[in-house]
Structure formats: C-alpha cells, structure tokens
Amino acid sequence: MQWSRSLTQGRNLLFPSPRTTNHTLKLKEINRIPLSLVCWQAFQRSRHEGKGHGRSRWKAREVGLSLGLVTAFCWDMNREKNINEREFLLAAMVGNISRMEEYLKKGVDVNCRHPYGWTALHSAAANSRPEAVRFLLKNGADPNMADTFSNIYQVARENRTSPVSVEAIREGEFCTLFNHSRMFRGCTALHYAVLANDPETIQILLDSGANPMLENEYRFKPEDYSRDTGMRTMMQRHSEKYIAKQKKEEMEERRKFPLEQRIKQRIIGQEGAIATVAGAIRRKENGWYDEEHPLVFLFLGSSGIGKTELAKQVAEYLHKGKKSSFIRMDMSEYQQKHEVAKFIGSPPGYVGHDDGGQLTKKLRECPNAVVLFDEVEKAHPDVLTILLQLFDEGRLTDGKGKTIECKDAIFIMTSNLASDEIAEYGRQLREEADKISKARYEGQPEDIEITETITVSRRFKEKIVRPILKSHFQRDEFLGRINEIVYFLPFSRSELLRLVRMELEKWVKQAHDKHNIEMKWDPMVLDVLADGYNVYYGARSIKHEVERRLVNQLALAYESGLVTPGCTVYIYTDIPSTEEEKAKLQDSPAPIKIRVRSKDADNFTEVDPNSALKAQAK
Known about the structure:
Structural class: alpha/beta
Strand order of the largest sheet: 2-3-6-1-7
Number of domains: 4
Oligomer: single chain
C-alpha cells in the first residue's frame, strides 16, 4: 500500500492538475521542456517536502520517483530522435533544403521512415520538389526504397486509431494530392513522381539509378501510372535502357564469376550434375532457349547427396535471395486423388475455393520462380497430369479459372527412383577413376584422356534408368517434357574427407561460440569418420557419424566436468599398426579419443567420458 501511495504521489508531482495553483510547474510547461527535467525538479521538491515525514515512507516514495526519473530520461532520448526525424520529413515535404541539412548534421538518417512508413525522398517526389530530391539523393537516399504505408484503414487497424486521424496525418505530413484510401504499399519515389506528373523529378530519379521495373503491392510499375503518352514513352525508353544495362552487368558478373564456381562453394562434388544444370541455365540467360516452354529438370540419386541444395542455389543465383523466388512443394502431400485440389485450388462451391491453390497462389506472386517438386514419384497420377500441362504449355489454370503464365519459371523434380542402381553404378565409376588416377600417377601417357569418358553412359541411361522411370510414371509424354535428367553420383574419397572437415569445422565454431572451448583434431580423424559413409544416405550419414562418435563424447565430457569453458580439446585416433591390434578391432572402426588441456595447464590429459560416467554410476 505504501509503494502504491508513493508512486501515485510521484505521478501527481510529475503531472500536476491544471486546477492546482500552488505548484511551480504547470502542465503546459511539461509539453515544452524535457520530461526528465520535469521529473528531476519533482524529485528534488518531493525530497525537500519529505524531510518531515517518516523515514520508511520517504524511502518508498524515493524509489518510485527514481524509477520515474530513469524512465523519463530514456523516453526523452527517444523522443528527441523522433522529433528530429519528423521535422526532417516535414522539411522534405516543403522542400526546405537548409532545414534538411541542419537535421542531417544532427545525425538524422537520410533514409529514416515516418512511423507510418514513408521516407523523405517519397515525400519530396510526391510534392514535386526536384531540388529537394536532388539534395536527398546526393546525401545517400535510396531511390529504390519502397513505401510501407498501405492505406488509411489498414494503418488505422495496425496502430489502433481511427482512419480519419491517419488521413489527417498522411495529408498534413506527406501529401494532399492523393486518395489515401487506395493502396500505396510498395510504391517507390519514382511511382510518386509519376503520380505527381513531374517530368523533372522523374528524370532526376532515373539518372540517379531508380529502377523503373520495380512493382508495388498491386504489381504496377511506375509507367503504369503515367497519364500522357509522352511520359509513358519516356518511361518505356528508360525501362528498356535499364534492362539492357542490367543484362550487361549481369553478363559481366557471370563472366567473372561463373555459376559453376558459385555452386561449388556450397556443394561438394557432383561435378557432372552442376555442369549439366549450369549449361541449361546459361542457355536460358543468354537467350538460347525455347521461349514457349519452361526449363524442366529431373534430379535422380540417393538421399542426402545435394539434389535439393542445388535447386536452392539455382534460385539464389537467379533471383539474388528473393524469398518468393524459390517454391518447394513436398509431393508426398499429394498422394491421394482428393488432394489434387490443394495443388491448384478447389472448384467453385467446394471448401477452400477462396483460398486458392498452394502452387498457383505462389506462382502468381513470382511467375519466374524456381519450383522444386520434391519426391515427385509419390504424387498421385492426376497431379502428374497437371504437371504435364504445366511443362508443355508453360501455364496453369487455378480453381477460379484464372490462368498463370509461367514460361520463364524453372521446374525441378527430385526422385529416389533408380537410386540403388545409380549408387552401384557410381561406385563402379569411382573404382574405374581410381585405377586411371593410379595409372596416370605411374606415368602412362596413353591413359591421360580417359577421365573425360567417365560419365554416366548412354547405355546405362537407356537400358537401366529409363525402364524404371517408364514403369513408374507409365507415360512417355511426361518423360518427353523433361529437358535434362541429372544424375547425382556417390561421393569420392576426397569429397568425403571434405564433408567430414566441413562438419568438424561447424562443431569447432559452435564449441567456441557457445562454450568458449577451442577444438583441434588429428588429420587421421578425417579418414576414420569418413569410413562411416553410407552410399544410400549420402552426406547425412557423415553428419550422423560425427554426432554419434564425437559429439556424444564431447557432450558427456562437458556434463561430467572433464571439459570446461576456456580449455582446449584435441581429437585423435589410434590406427592399429600391428596385425594383433587389427585382429582385436576386427570389423569395428578405430576409436575416436579426446585429450583436454585446461586453461592454466601446459600439457594435454587424456580423458574417457564413458569411464567417468560408469564411475559416477557406482
């Protein structure tokens, strides 16, 4: 009760009633000076008045006022920043360059946003202030930044206020020319300049690198808002120049840093698969492809060998990390006939009609996306019929009767069909490659060119793989729509060692970041862990082997106190050198052991977490 009374008294001192005449501080003065100063004066006044009261009562009151003082100081810091930004945005609205320069010197970010979403550049462009636009661009304003203001109704709901209040702020602090009940989210400064019908501002923005191809929430480009033919022609001309310039820059970038190199930074091995996919993508990017049909791939190989990752890297390369550009459909969700409706949307009168289809809805957002159909062999035959139309015509009609054109999309199907046959065939290829490498090392020049022929042979494709595919899909026309069937082969020994090293480096980083533990390993550990590779489970078998044989020991040692923060862990293995030692191990893998050096010690000490656990159990 005493705490509550003290806090109430503190509040009354901070915010005195307008009817009170005996207080020095009036309510109207609080609005003109920092709240922390008001709080400090109230604190001093309360301290002076509290000397005659009881000590316990004053202490409780002092705590409440102290908390208020700290809160007021933090609020003042944020309030000053917000006030400066609002004044900067208002200066841009009226084109007051000297005022904008003053606030930039105070540390205001040139790309700061109004609480409702627009920037100074948006405001200057919407109000036809070309000199202000030029000043903002010169000081680092982003010409391609999009407005996050939607419309007065949605913003009012988000901020729990009335649409009338939002409209008043939008007109008073942004622009009075527009109907603010319309959707503006996604509009750039170029959109607003075209809406304002200001050719000078448009030219300034275009010369500063504004992208005329950016679309707003309604998928409208700036040129779509032009009201006269001359401006539309100018915008189209600049759009063509921008596209040509962008293509030239992308071509130069591809020449310096080819797709194969980018993918190899993320994927180990699979040289043939990467080369096949990169070649097809290169044809598409440079205009050497059939524009009436989309690119279609079928990735074959065992699990955990890089099929999904390669699809992700293609999307990353083509769309520069845009999230909606990669669509992943798990085809195991479409095994029943009635689930086909989820794919393209339910017909009229059925449940889910208004929601649209899971594929068509995403393709409408990004018609040139990279679409991954994972484990396509699990899909119902009716889904394959839809895919057949998609691959053949490059368009899809949803449950509402709307057609989505997606001829620029890339469709990738993954499948585990014939994975055992491909794994066995790949193992034979690896053995052949090892023999040729050995012959080359021994200096037989007649075998030097043979490595070029170590690829998946046509006989293997036609006699072994194709019958399996035909038996499952039961339609030649479906297989005939596939541009490239890409084969993912098992990892070689050198690739396995790279996988183990990558996995160990991941755990080294985690040990350092989370536990302040330094980890090192003997090179022989790589060979021992690589022996845990299972050709049917791919890279996942390496991951599980490292976790099972090494990370389990580290976790147990950490829990037992054998490994502590600040120490160094050395991982090693004992490879049997004599026949007797080999006989003891028989088919068991060589054990992974750890040594620990504490923070202040000079030497490593071998630890056995399992023995420590048994000792604790006793």
